[in-house]
Design brief:
By secondary structure, the protein is mainly alpha-helical. It has a domain of 114 residues: Four Helix Bundle (Hemerythrin (Met), subunit A). The protein contains six helices and no strands. 16% of the residues are buried.
């Protein structure tokens, strides 16, 4: 095999991708579908104020753009299209400094944000050096960082401190 590390990294990426259950709106689903509740009415959810809903909608749209850039990086890694990796790493770097990115104040979220920006930088360097193995490893670490950050932001005490 050309890249022995490639098969290990590819298996890990596929496993991570399979771990995500995306519904049609692009939101992560943490609950498996329950066949016993299909067709039955569910209790009404408490509606958030209109300003919160608009803010959440904007954040979701921004995160979908980030996810699109990450997917393009993965595509570039798989096809060894280093220009595609560099282009989308630059998008990620720009997004990591945008005002919409800063949804929580504090050192923990700051560390996650810094890690994301550093991953974008390392992806760009790996693409510049035409090093698919390095790009794969950085991509996997960035994916894990995203998952951990989203878990952190969903914590009840953190959700209350979100910037609107």
């Amino acid at each position: 095999m050309k890249h022995p590390l490639a098969s290990i990294a590819a298996a890990a990426v596929v496993s991570l991708a399979a771990a995500f259950a995306w519904n049609s709106s692009g939101e992560s689903s943490t609950q498996p579908a329950n066949p016993n509740t299909r067709g039955k009415s569910q209790p009404a959810k408490k509606k958030a104020p209109a300003a919160d809903q608009a803010g959440d909608k904007a954040i979701r749209a921004f995160m979908r753009q980030k996810l699109a850039a990450m997917r393009q990086v993965l595509r570039g890694i798989v096809t060894e299209d280093y220009a595609l990796i560099q282009t989308n790493a630059a998008r990620m770097r720009k997004m990591g400094t945008a005002a919409q990115w800063n949804i929580v104040q504090g050192p923990i979220y700051g560390d996650y944000s810094a890690s994301f920006r550093r991953s974008a930088e390392l992806l760009s360097q790996a693409a510049k050096n035409k090093n698919a193995d390095a790009a794969m490893l950085v991509y996997m670490q960035a994916t894990l960082n995203c998952i951990e950050c989203h878990r952190y932001v969903r914590e009840p005490n953190v959700k209350r401190n979100r910037i609107q």
